[in-house]
Amino acid sequence: MNRLVPAFFALLFFVFAATPAARAQHDGEAPEHGTEAPAGEEFNVGEVALHHIANANAVHIFGDWYLHLPAILYAPGHGWSAFLTSKFDAHHHGNGTKAIDHYVLMHGSILRIKDPSFPYGEVPVSDYAVEEVEKDGKKRDVYYAIVDGKRYELDKKTTWDAGILGGGVTSFYDFSISKNVFTLFLTLLLLFFLFRRAVKTAEANSGKAPSGVQSLLEPLIEFVRDEVAIPSIGKDKYEPYLPFLLSLFFFILGLNLIGQFPIMGNVTGNLSFTLVLALITALYYNLKGNKHYWEHIFWMPNVPTPLRLLILTPVEALGILIKPFTLMLRLFANITAGHLVIVSFVGLIFIFGKSGASLGGSVVGIIVSLILTMVMMIIEVLVAFVQAYVFTLLAASYFGMATEEAHH
Amino acid sequence: MTGSIAVLGMGLAVVGAGIGIGLIGSKAMEAIARQPEAVGDIRSNMILTAALIEGVALIALVLGFIS
Q1: Chain segment A83-139, per-residue pLDDT in tens
Q2: Which residues of chain A are within 8 Å of residue B40 when distances are taken between CB atoms?
Q3: For an interface test with B, which of A50, A275, A329 has the most B Cβ atoms less than 10 Å from its Cβ?
């Protein structure tokens, strides 16, 4: 069992076969830095940082090396496509050199060529371009793929945020095992093996002092039970909710910690992921809510009726929505903010060094950013624990509210 | 000078949350100094209250991003 985990990593690595660096000498012209800022323009830290914490369809390791993941795509009118992202033959910056059935890989994300007259199958793409377009008073980036000197507009994948975060329903749906999904599976497997080991040692050690992984996990489990579940839910009612709270805690903690590693996906800093976590929690405690809980929301006892109708009921009813909303945002914003700050600190190297033009500046930038990033990483690890704790604590207190018995 | 006025709102939200969490922290420290044996209860309540304030500030931040 000891050797299984590294062996699994190694296996995964070879199954998805990183692209050999030799492919850099691809026939034809290598793609130029088409999507980078032209010389003379300032280095935009915010944009780079946002790109680096975002989800991607292939995991970029370094240089021309990628961990290729399966892409599963659906376009209405064309149907399903499934292939490994290695088919895009990506070079640096995650830009693919081929279009496959209208799909292209740009900056590590899959986009689709809008033009219906574009041929299906494999078509070589020479370059990509970005143009800022002003639409309805808002600036928006439009992406293009350049094929045979002609520009084809690209569509982003469909998102369900109704365009609030720049998405909306487009010409294709992305169900791929993306970087985030891959990280999620990896964390699940890791947690599974860790806990299985802990359970085995706990069984072997019954009546004796804990050892091995058990001594790492047991205090955490006891912490969640004694400091989170029992005080918030109550001594006689906490037990049915403990498994859920423990799963929440270790799942969030594991993803937070694995998100600190380079290469790995930033799962808890993804709004859709935290949305689903918050929704599951909200659904659970609302379904478990007793009469007392619902009475306090819709018809607060011992309060004059006009006051109930005007203030208490609307506010409490909104609270049903606001609770999961803040659960979702708190985790997302804390993790995203930490990652953004770290990438911005790394960006200092390029700002001080004027994108490589000044060597002295780069050296100063490296020293400054090294110190700042190290301090920030310490805070990040702390935040990883605190956010897992806060999410679990709030979930537990909501369970407590929903199951509280009348006491007046 | 260019930029969005939403950024000012985000800044104001952060100021408010900062004052709020600062008050919680100072009161919690005081309470722990008075009653060191209640440190566990005080700490978890402190974090819970800080999380509630943070939630309001985060809503303001996200609204600032969207606008």
Answers
A1: 888 888 877 677 888 888 888 888 888 888 888 888 888 888 888 888 877 766 666
A2: 227
A3: A329
